[in-house]
Amino acid sequence: MVDIATRVYNHKWKIDPIVRSLIDTDFYKLLMCQSVFRNKPDTQVTFSLINRSTHIPLANLIDEGELREQLDHIRSLSLSRGESTWLRGNTFYGKRQMFRPDFMEWFEGMRLPPYHLERKGDQFELTFEGKWHEVMLWEIPALAVLMELRSRAALGPMGKFELQVLYARAMTRVWEKIEALREVDNLSIADFGTRRRHSYLWQDWCVQAMHEGLGNAFTGTSNCRIAMMRELEAIGTNAHELPMVYAALADDDEELARAPYDVLSDWHDEHDGNLRIILPDTYGTKGFLDHAPDWLAGWTGIRIDSGDPATAAQTAIDWWRARGEDPTTKRVIFSDGLDVEKIKELHAQFAGKAKISFGWGTLLTNDFRGLVPNDALAPFSLVCKAVSANGRPTVKLSDNPNKAMGPADEIARYKRVFGVGEQAAQKVIV
Amino acid sequence: MVDIATRVYNHKWKIDPIVRSLIDTDFYKLLMCQSVFRNKPDTQVTFSLINRSTHIPLANLIDEGELREQLDHIRSLSLSRGESTWLRGNTFYGKRQMFRPDFMEWFEGMRLPPYHLERKGDQFELTFEGKWHEVMLWEIPALAVLMELRSRAALGPMGKFELQVLYARAMTRVWEKIEALREVDNLSIADFGTRRRHSYLWQDWCVQAMHEGLGNAFTGTSNCRIAMMRELEAIGTNAHELPMVYAALADDDEELARAPYDVLSDWHDEHDGNLRIILPDTYGTKGFLDHAPDWLAGWTGIRIDSGDPATAAQTAIDWWRARGEDPTTKRVIFSDGLDVEKIKELHAQFAGKAKISFGWGTLLTNDFRGLVPNDALAPFSLVCKAVSANGRPTVKLSDNPNKAMGPADEIARYKRVFGVGEQAAQKVIV
């Protein structure tokens, strides 16, 4: 039986919305948002979309009007009662009331601020200006909208069965990855694939397949909405935007050198246990650890997000040992450019030396490589970053010069202040 | 929105029926049924299920109670008004009113006769006794029920996503076959896979995928229900049961020798054009053609269903030429043990020498080989045959001694009467 009311209701949709919830976002955005809401509530920040894959002409593939409709739809969203209940009532990392009442009250009334969209050649210029803790919440939905509109552009001309076989092939691929990962003893892996996913429904499928296929080895998803709907753990801690903005706000070189530690000092006051995860690479992992205060060595673990992951992990292990810590009690989370082979390789290399986890992103939730002509669904490197704070440009160096961003003179200054020398370039996959 | 009424209605199902329509059967069964209804209305025939794959212990895999429920459900079916309208109003092979009013009137009132089911070791003995034109209609639903219950037994322990990936893999396999067949110029291929399909829904999917993927090269399906629902051509002509029963009814060797031609004489009176397709192998292709009356050489084509297909096709081509016919105007339909490689090979070998068609069966609608542990979904060789007529045993020789059936002394007699010498054994795939 066709439910006529449902059918008629569906007819009334103006668009098929890509982002349907304010918590269809990464968990760490909410943690960071709360931190900023408390510590830097007056900071003005600009976020900007950057397509690092310049060979993908987004403005030719995606209709500007449709993009505006999707972004306008996101601006119409507010936290639903059930979402608010989940954030207030759930345990995160084993802890209740992770989100404070004053933050929740503000979040319940929050709407995303305006966006600025302009076509520039065959790319879009998409920026968000405003209070840091508001504009930062644009990052994930903006990326998800652009990724999915680009997917839709490639899927548009396909037939019904062709589409079904496309997804059949993609499902088979994900399942084969899961089968390969089943062979890894004591695996601990989470989904970090929200931002560059193929689509919401596809991420949701991948997460559920991981859950069925890997059981307890699958530790959860970074996506709050999916974590809520599927009753899974929400996973994530903090990201580069914190040190980038703190650094941009520094008035002189001395403050700049201290900024990355100030971030973690604020974090230290707010969080403990498994939320105390160092992200050391914003201005070079080696220098960051060398100059780190001793209390940071007491933190629970480290996340490796750029450069050669094995080198970075070994650097961290050596650092812990040098600071009198037992590395085997520490957690090392790999989260950059992972796929099955890399996961198995890193696991084999570091099992026993530290507790190993993986945050698996784009090649979990968007591996459609080779499945359509011209590889029109291959993932690409789209980011949305804080580019300025209170009018000053931000800088990111990371452990891979191909991921560096900011004005050239500022990059040079940061390199000097943080003592970053030659870096080995790594291909940015996604 | 959940449609509550639908949900409640679904709760009321006693079983999930496998066969839901009397025309979920092969088109040629209906053509033959009409022919028998006219020419041999009083013949008493016994059909019997035969599992040629004795290593598959059907009675251990399938619950007898469930099997009875499915068979009982089939006995409750009658022709629906829409199905009757379709049979009466549709064009088949370009012709209207293929089914005569007296036949349709009888068919509209028909219910399938009782079955006899008994467990014998780890196999089932399943037989149908009664008027030929009634019991013959058990063949396809009986096979479909056993095939699908065996599929369900293998699928039962599987998880939700495991199942989805299983079908994803099977879909990908079918689609890759379709992609390979797209490269064959002037292909003409139909679905003949009802009897040993994985399931009804799966056959329906395969047919639709063939339709989308091959366009006009896909000429239709033998399944009447699917042809009706998907607005495709229903395909099929006649089968071995006609000469087998006619032969069993023969009173002496002379009548026996004439029986296969008597069948086609009756057919000749009823049908013309593309329905005049010779099935020559029941008692050996070579002898059948050598002794055939000249009017048979005027028929439209031939169907190759056992033995080495290339040899049989060449035999037919030589025979047409010897009888003064132009083989390039004749149709050769291959329908035995086909898969993509064989189809491409036969097409390459005979294109230009005759009009070539393919009736693709089990390896279209049931190729789950290698997709589950112990290959528990691999197709197997289950048949349901007329084993006696008016108390006399039937015999089939075919061009493959591995497909021969009947009592040994009768097989010897038939071989003598039809002058069948040494035959090359072919592995029976499905």
TrEMBL record, chains A, B:
Record EC number: 6.3.4.21
UniProt domain Nicotinate phosphoribosyltransferase N-terminal: residue ranges: 23-146
Post-translational modification: Transiently phosphorylated on a His residue during the reaction cycle. Phosphorylation strongly increases the affinity for substrates and increases the rate of nicotinate D-ribonucleotide production. Dephosphorylation regenerates the low-affinity form of the enzyme, leading to product release.
Gene3D superfamilies given in the database record: nicotinate phosphoribosyltransferase (3.20.140.10)
Catalytic activity: 5-phospho-alpha-D-ribose 1-diphosphate + nicotinate + ATP + H2O = nicotinate beta-D-ribonucleotide + ADP + phosphate + diphosphate
Residues recorded as bearing Phosphohistidine in the entry: H240
Keywords: Glycosyltransferase, Ligase, Phosphoprotein, Pyridine nucleotide biosynthesis, Transferase
Keyword set includes GTP-binding: no
All copies of domain Nicotinate/nicotinamide phosphoribosyltransferase, residue ranges: 188-421
GO molecular function, one term: nicotinate phosphoribosyltransferase activity
Pathway of action: Cofactor biosynthesis; NAD(+) biosynthesis; nicotinate D-ribonucleotide from nicotinate: step 1/1
HAMAP family: NAPRTase (MF_00570)
NCBIfam families hit by this protein: NAPRTase, PRK05321.1
Task performed by this protein: Catalyzes the synthesis of beta-nicotinate D-ribonucleotide from nicotinate and 5-phospho-D-ribose 1-phosphate at the expense of ATP.
Annotated family: Belongs to the NAPRTase family.
Protein name, as recorded: Nicotinate phosphoribosyltransferase
Organism: Sulfitobacter indolifex HEL-45
